[in-house]
């Protein structure tokens, strides 16, 4: 069931990447763009031709060779392949991180979606996006062994959830 909520003009805290940091977003800056947000959980792949190459869970880290939790799923593709928003939401972050490279974090009300290792972002903080909207391009930024997008779903406490249950 789809819900519409009116966003308040108060300051809210949204979990940021990496997971030990958080950012306060003052929605008053974006009030003209944030009148209504459709609250729908993500339910599609962020790529046009999804080819999952790494699953959620513990694995041998491809660079360091040690057991490490993989907090999302990786979709293979070519640098420059389009990455899509998996549900309507508001852009909370669009910036660079040493490990994740260029990344985007989208708030969808009940959860957020996270897209990393992009070669380019098409969005800015505070922008409303629709499901299927192109938000960036796949790439090799950050710590990677090849072109892919790292995709996560996070709850409101910034805890990563296995994204596979959100994909149709």
Question: Any key phrases for this structure?
Answer:
168 residues, mainly beta, ten-stranded antiparallel sheet, two-stranded antiparallel sheet
Number of domains: 1
**Mean of all residue-level pLDDT scores:** 82
Mind telling me the C-alpha Rg? Answer: 15 Å
Number of strands: 16
Beta-strand content estimate:
over 45%
C-alpha termini separation: 16 Å
User: Sheet bearing the most strands, described?
Assistant: 10 strands, antiparallel
Q: Uncertain segments of ≥5 residues (pLDDT<50)?
A: 1-28
CATH superfamily: Glucose Permease (Domain IIA)
| Helix-strand string | EEEEEEEEEEEEEEEE
Q: Total helix count? A: 0
Task: Please explain how this structure is put together.
This protein is mainly β and 168 residues long. The protein has a single domain, classed as Glucose Permease (Domain IIA), CATH 2.70.70. Helix content is 0%, strand content 48%. The chain has no helices and 16 strands. The protein has strands at residues 3-6, 11-15, 22-26, 36-39, 52-54, 57-60, 67-70, 73-76, 82-84, 89-97, 101-107, 111-121, 128-129, 134-138, 148-155, 160-161. Strands 5, 8, 9, 10, 11, 12, 13, 14, 15 and 16 form a 10-stranded antiparallel sheet that branches. It has a two-stranded antiparallel ribbon with strand order 1-4. A two-stranded antiparallel ribbon has the order 2-3. A hairpin with a 3-residue loop joins strand 11 and strand 12 (111-121). The chain is globular, with a radius of gyration of 15 Å. The two termini are 16 Å apart.
